[in-house]
Design a protein that fits this description.
By secondary structure, the chain is α/β, with parallel strands linked by helices. It has a 5-stranded parallel β-sheet. Strands 9-16-10-11-12 form a 5-stranded parallel β-sheet, covered by helices on one side. Strands 23-24-27-26-25 form a 5-stranded antiparallel β-sheet, with helices on both faces. Helices cover 24% and strands 29% of the residues. It has 12 helices and 27 strands. It folds into 3 domains: 184 residues, FAD/NAD(P)-binding domain, CATH 3.50.50; 122 residues, 3-Layer(bba) Sandwich (FAD/NAD(P)-binding domain), CATH 3.50.50; 123 residues, Enolase-like, domain 1 (2-Layer Sandwich).
Length: 463
């Protein structure tokens, strides 16, 4: 059997592992539009800071993974579409790769709004490893002293704090009324944003929109205005990171009969490629997983969840089923955490349809749990920690210390414990759909958390 996997992220690599645990002989070809082996896409701010070990970044083992899995890894092969009638995928260069079974795991791309001046040099996204490496090079070379982040979602906020740590003057522009607008409700977003601004020098412009980027060849200023106003003003900058969300690469199935997640009433897409509990699309020989797909959540609803853990989960399910082992996906849960050092935040599940909430506060931590019919539906978490100072073993500190005179002082005075304090709360309660009982209440009051990172594989900024 010939298996072609489009994509090389966490979902694709998880699928390869699952497939090979069942089938050691079939031919596997992995097509990636990047040159790097599979890496952790949620660690780009760590790459900018240079505080992540390669074993953690290339978390499956780098090039050795493909050798061990007997997979043919083809770099810089951008797939532009699939012809599921001919059973081929087609690259930008016109090459065709035939398959018996195909997995579409090409993820999502960074959405960049059509803002005037967006093509200026110095305007970038921070979605890929190449993006992060380029940003780091601009900073270490002294080219960037001021930066504007467009969008205050998790990636935008993580990048903002990272740049501030590196001595960059940072401004964040967000069209909504709070930071992390899709992750936290108004109250929790306000608490998070207030702590972040108080503890750092980051300036946040809420309910503002970007009008244009200005500059001669390289970006020099960002023009913004309050939402609903005609009066604009400019912020001087040396770099812009556009962090306005991602979109699934559903264009791969355009012109085919493979179904997309649609809002039937509005007649428009609301997610990725539609899959069943086996990660199959409407074509049983074509599977989809990760950020490109809309899968079934723990409540049985199709949802598009573009996050690392659900991507891995759906990838394993797809791999098993492509190999002929019938495995159902038990349901996805969207849970996320912001890996900022000054103040942490996490959320999971669904909030919009909650009937009741339980709020717990303990020291610097604040938790809100959302309930529906007495069951845990979702949670939100904000917390601040104090910690030690500068870690002189960090290579970025060694390279920048002395070049930016105020930077070391900023980091030494900063607060936070890094990835150790980023957490996901109550995921098990959501998965099991348990009623809120005395044990659950005790867990809420105790602020049960699960670390998202592996500190042993990092060289953190802080001791």
């Amino acid at each position: 059997m010939k298996v072609v996997i489009v994509g090389n992220g966490p979902s694709a690599l998880s699928a390869v592992e699952a497939f090979r645990s069942v089938d050691r002989e079939s031919e596997i070809t992995i097509l990636s539009d990047e040159k790097h082996p599979g890496y952790a896409p949620n660690c780009m701010e760590n790459v900018i800071r240079d505080d992540i070990h390669p074993r953690a970044l290339f978390f499956k083992g780098g090039d050795e993974f493909y050798e061990r899995m007997k997979a043919n890894f083809l770099r810089e092969k951008e797939v532009v579409r699939i012809d599921n009638k001919k059973k081929v995928v087609i690259t930008k260069g016109g090459e065709e790769f035939g398959y018996d079974r195909c997995l579409l795991a090409a993820g999502a791309y960074a959405f960049v709004p059509p803002i005037d001046g967006v093509d200026l040099k110095g305007v970038t996204t921070a979605k890929t490893l190449d993006d992060a490496l380029q940003i780091r090079e601009w900073i270490t070379s002294g080219k960037v002293r001021k930066a504007v982040i467009v969008g205050a979602g998790p990636i935008g906020i993580e990048d903002a704090e990272t740049l501030w740590h590196l001595g960059v003057e940072v401004s964040v522009v967000e069209i909504f009324d709070r930071v992390l607008p899709r992750m936290l409700d108004h109250e929790m977003g306000r608490v998070y944003g207030e702590i972040l601004q108080k503890e750092t020098g980051i300036r946040i412009y809420l309910e503002h929109q970007v009008v244009a980027f200005h500059g001669n060849d390289w970006v020099e200023a960002v023009e913004i205005k309050p939402r609903g106003s005609d009066r604009s003003f400019t912020i001087e900058t040396d770099m812009v990171i556009v962090s306005t969300g991602v979109r699934p690469r559903t264009y791969l199935v355009e012109g085919t009969d493979i179904k997309i997640h649609m809002d039937e009433n509005l007649g428009r897409p609301v997610g990725g490629i539609l899959v069943n509990e086996f990660q199959q699309t409407s074509d049983p020989d074509v599977f989809a997983s990760g950020d490109i797909a809309s899968g079934l959540d723990v409540w049985g609803n199709h949802r598009w969840i573009a996050l690392f853990p659900p991507a891995q989960q759906s990838g394993y399910i797809a791999g098993f089923n492509m190999a002929g082992k019938e495995v159902r996906n038990p349901g996805l849960v969207d849970y996320n955490a912001v890996k900022t050092r000054t103040v942490t935040a996490g959320s999971g599940g669904i909030f919009e349809d909650a009937e009741d909430t339980v709020v717990a506060e303990k020291g610097p931590y604040l938790v809100k749990v959302f309930l529906l019919e007495g069951k845990v539906r979702g949670y939100q978490f904000v917390g601040k920690k104090t910690a030690g100072g500068l870690n002189t073993k960090n290579p970025l500190i060694r390279s920048l210390n002395g070049k930016l005179k105020t930077w070391a002082d900023k980091v030494t005075l900063d607060r936070g414990l890094g990835l150790e304090t980023s957490g996901v709360l109550f995921h098990s309660f959501i998965k099991t759909q348990a009623h809120l009982n005395s044990l659950t209440k005790k867990a809420i009051e105790s602020l049960v958390i699960r670390a998202l990172g592996n500190p042993a594989q990092e060289i953190p900024l802080y001791l």
